[in-house]
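The authors assume throughout that readers already know how a fold can be written as discrete tokens. For illustration, here is how one protein appears when written out as sequence plus structure tokens.
>
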Amino acid sequence: MPFGEHQYAVDDKGRVIIPPGFRDFVEDGMVVTRGMERCLYVFPMGAWTRIEKRLEELPLTDSDARNFIRFFYSGAAKAKLDSAGRVTLPPILRQFAEAQGAVIIAGAPNRLEIWNEARWNENLLGVTEHPPAPELLRELVG
């Protein structure tokens, strides 16, 4: 699984470099979609296939499930690395995440996240000012 964070810039064609250490993770293709906190999620194809199966199991009669599927699935776009190790972010996703200029590409379990740099820094500050519940930390570290 990828971990760490890297700063890159989205160019005028909407392309951003995927850090060399993350490229093996998405070398067989990826899906880029809307994420929580207005970042973008980048899933390798295998992880996306598992997510699609779970989305298909959500009840059609549940309005929260329908809304989440609309949010998450309608913005999804398949992508591949180009020869320079870049991925092109569709305009609608760049707009959603305000992904222009400096961005942070961060590793996370089963995905990468692409963040507007200012929003990333705000999010980190929020975590340090309001740390997770002690129960969650105990569960994670024992």
The mean pLDDT is 93. Helices lie at 20-26, 45-57, 63-73, 91-97, 117-129, 134-141.
